[in-house]
Amino acid sequence: MVDAKTIQRRLERYADDADPLTRVSNRLALILAANQPFYPFYVFWLTGALDPLLALTFVSTPFFIAAPWVTKRFPAAGRLYFPVVGALNTFFCAYLFGSASGVELFLAPCLVIAALSCRAAERLALGIFVATLLAGFLFLHERFATPIGDPVQFQTLLPLNTYSAAVLTAMAAWMLSAGWTEGEVTPKT
Fold this sequence. Notes:
Elements: H1 4-15, H2 20-35, H3 39-47, H4 61-65, H5 67-73, H6 75-97, H7 107-117, H8 123-140, H9 151-155, H10 158-185
Helix pairs in contact: 2-10, 5-6, 6-7, 6-8, 7-8, 7-10
């Protein structure tokens, strides 16, 4: 039987990378993936109902779990992989739940993660990501006015999504700032 410490060591090894920013980005992706199964319970707690559409939020989970695998095989694009998946998931969930749900607020941590996890040599890729993300938001925002599910139910998600996006943004900024400090002082070889 595998105990919790063994699982933790395996996850740490899986997320590990010589680059401190990549390592932190990988850990954030795994934290987000681990949190996704609880989202329907949060919604149930707030609304008292479980909409079958909530199961669609799990579509992105394997992509978040794959972030460390991608960064090991494609180092140049790896650090932007996680925020790209996060942005695509955000747009998908905004389509499902509508703009009134506040799910588009998760674009903020996507921007923070992308901006703080990229090095100077990756500025062009970062600029393309930011421009695409902003264009996507400006183009798609009004088209999310009518959710697929119950609009009244999904409007009650605004406080949850506001809080969650703020916490993820703060956590990402905190963790990635430590990665910058570690990268400047003692990069792992």
